Amino acid sequence: MRTMIRTILITSLTLSLAGLVWAQEQKKRASPHETTSALVGGSKVTIEYGRPYKKGRDIFGGLEPLGKVWRTGADEATTFTTEKDLMVGKLHVPAGTYGLFTIPDKAGWTLILNKTAKQWGAFKYDQGQDLGRTPMQVKTLEAPVEQLTITIEPKGDTEGTLKITWDRTEASVGLMVH
Fold it and tell me: Which burial class, exposed, middle or buried, applies to 123 when counting CB atoms under 10 A from its CB (0-12, 13-18, 19+)?
């Protein structure tokens, strides 16, 4: 009986300490994490990502090199989840969860959906696991955006737009449920 009580107490203490350590690590993040979602053609589309700040830095071509795969956020890779099959730009995307990456470039951006959703940034990125890639529209903003922001804007009955804004750049791609 005493052994069982001791085991329960030790297990409870261990779990409590693990929870405290996890909570402290979450507080240490320099970039807060956010989940954004919207209904596009009756299908819930959700994006989870880390939101780094500009902090006076040059972002594209500076902090984030042009022409290279970017995790499109901070910390873990950004995830893209859709409840129904849809088109992301020219890419057919079956219902599911994917890693979302981009390649920022002066000539235009490329959005990448990778079949490995849960991974650490671009460090474990495997191009062989890409579901596919699609071009994005890019425009220069008049005023800089301090914190990386990803939005999903529904449009009409079956369409929407995914927008990524940071610094003086906005990259967007159409969404369409079919």
Answer: exposed
| pLDDT tens, residue by residue, 101-133 | 999 998 899 999 999 988 765 567 899 999 999
Q: Which H or E element spans position 171?
A: strand 159-177
What are the pLDDT digits (tens) for 132-159? 999 999 999 999 999 999 999 999 999 9
- In this structure, the answer to whether residues 19 and 76 fall within a common structural domain is no
How much is the pTM?
Answer: 0.81
Quote the DSSP letter at residue 64.
B
Residue 21 sits in the same domain as residue 58: no
Which DSSP symbol is given to 113? E
* 49 touches 25 (CB < 8 A): no
Whether 132 and 162 map to the same domain: the answer is yes
Is the pLDDT at 94 greater than 70? The verdict is yes
